Amino acid sequence: MEAFRGLFEMLAWAGSIGDRFIADGVFRPALLDGLYYIRNVVLHQGVDVLFWLFRPPSMLGTMRQGPTTPVVDVWVWPLPGDFEPPRSLAGEKEYESLLAGHEVVPTLENALAVLRRDLGT
Fold first, then answer.
1. What is the pLDDT of residue 59?
2. Angle (nearest 5°) at CA 121 between 27 and 13
3. What is the pLDDT along the chain (121 residues), one digit of tens a residue?
4. I need a surface site. Which of 5, 32, 58, 93 has the fewest CB within 10 A?
């Protein structure tokens, strides 16, 4: 459940930041559009996406067999077709090109770096 809460909060913030950029007339990086798309998946499907986090293949990872139990090898964003698309397809192309199949943590680190660069902080 903690994984879902963290994912939900991070994606909610990405959506809020993207919305604020639009309202302020600030250029919105494509990576934020991709995060907005998957945010809509998680936001609108809610509890229905929990199985992605707890049942292999995990929404955010590929699994491998460890010495005694399955362990996370690498956490990746799900590929299109692994989830029900949201009603709004805003950011779909950016999601497919910048996030789908890519590792989650480096993607989020990259998003932070892009925001810092674009905001001059």
1. 45
2. 60
3. 666 677 788 888 888 988 888 899 988 899 999 999 999 988 877 666 655 555 444 444 555 555 555 555 566 788 888 788 888 899 999 999 999 888 777 888 998 898 888 777 6
4. 5
Query: Which residue pairs, CB below 8 angstroms and at least 24 apart, start in 114-120?
Result: 114/29, 114/31, 114/32, 115/17, 115/29, 115/32, 118/26, 118/27, 118/29
Q: Can you tell me the distance from the alpha carbon of 74 to that of 101, in angstroms, rounded to the nearest whole number? A: 10
**What burial letters (b/e) apply to 68-90, b meaning 16+ CB within 10 Å?**
eeeeeeebbbbeeeebeebeeee
Distance between CA atoms of 107 and 37, rounded to whole angstroms? Answer: 14
Residue spans per domain, the chain = 2-119
